[in-house]
Amino acid sequence: MNATKQPTVPTAPTNRQDRLYAVLLGPVVSEKSTMIGEKHDQVAFRVMHDATKDEIKAAIELLFKVEVDRVSVLNQKGKQKRFGRFEGRRSNVRKAYVRLKAGQEINFAQEIGK
């Protein structure tokens, strides 16, 4: 009786709280995201490709201790790029624009230090 060991394949976190920590990949830092942050109390994040609006909302509320009003998501296709004679393509990105309730704010400089 030979027992062969199966290779382990990395899977998504099974615990809900672990999943929420993994949903957010990072903030989107651009002119547009800064402008909407100042004008409409919104924050832009890069999120996992299979993240839902409810998961994103729960993750923001858990990590930053703020109240979320609304979440809008979009899938941005990667651009075609050339490197000399080689052609390549950037990865697709899923973004979430999160609108915070009135009086709520996320300050990344303070949150990183915690």
CATH architectural designation: 2-Layer Sandwich
Strand content: 25-35%
Strand order, largest beta sheet: 1-2-6-3
The count of strands amounts to 6
- Summing up helix and strand content along with how strands pair, one would put the structural category as alpha+beta
Q: Write down the CATH class.
A: Alpha Beta
List the uncertain runs: none
Question: How would you characterize this protein structure?
Answer:
It is built from four helices and six strands. With 114 residues, it is α+β, with helices and mostly antiparallel strands. The strands form two sheets. A four-stranded antiparallel sheet has the order 1-2-6-3. Strand 4 and strand 5 form a beta hairpin. The chain is flat and about 60 Å long. 15% of the residues are buried.
Question: What keywords describe this structure?
Answer:
Alpha-Beta Plaits, two-stranded antiparallel ribbon, 6 strands, 114 residues
Give the SSE layout.
Blueprint: H1 16-23, E1 24-27, H2 31-40, E2 42-47, H3 53-64, E3 68-76, E4 80-83, E5 86-89, E6 93-100, H4 108-113
Antiparallel strand pairs: 1-2, 2-6, 3-6, 4-5
